[in-house]
Amino acid sequence: MLLSGYEAYSRLAIVLASFVPTAEDLDRGTQYIYDGTLLPCWSWRKHRELYSGKHKTTGKNVQVACDLYGQLAWISDPVDGSRHDAHCIDESSVLVEFPERSQLGDKGYVGKGIITPIKKPECRDLLDWEKEFSSQVNKIRYMIEQVIANFKTWRIMHTDYRRPLDTFDTTISAVVGLNFYQMA
Known about the structure:
The chain has 184 residues and is of the alpha+beta class.
């Protein structure tokens, strides 16, 4: 019996779910680096919640975590693309059990209790020590950018998703499952 694309992805997502770590599976003694990425889909005019003003396209946002050695550790469930990384990280509850200032992220997570580069105040330039601090954070944070780039080598994760919109979350789950299965 031949399965449709959606049925195949749906079954894959179910079978591979045990390989996908959840937020609760992350080791509370490990320092992780977080970042969000947009997985693009067709422009769905009736779904303005998918439009990302930053990326000027529609899609779903996922949060990604890796350890300091660049090992992918976790990928969140997809959230509408119009949502900011700070909202998405809160919705995932991934930071709940971690001590304050023990995790790293970009400026999109300012105020979330994790180490971020320092934002430039409107009234002055950054001081030398602030520039150096931000530079050091970014030297560590580059690992998550590489992890996301590696995840997006799956073609379906970096090109517009053209199948029916209601199948997108299942497809993302299947690809995330395949990615973690491949790592096992």
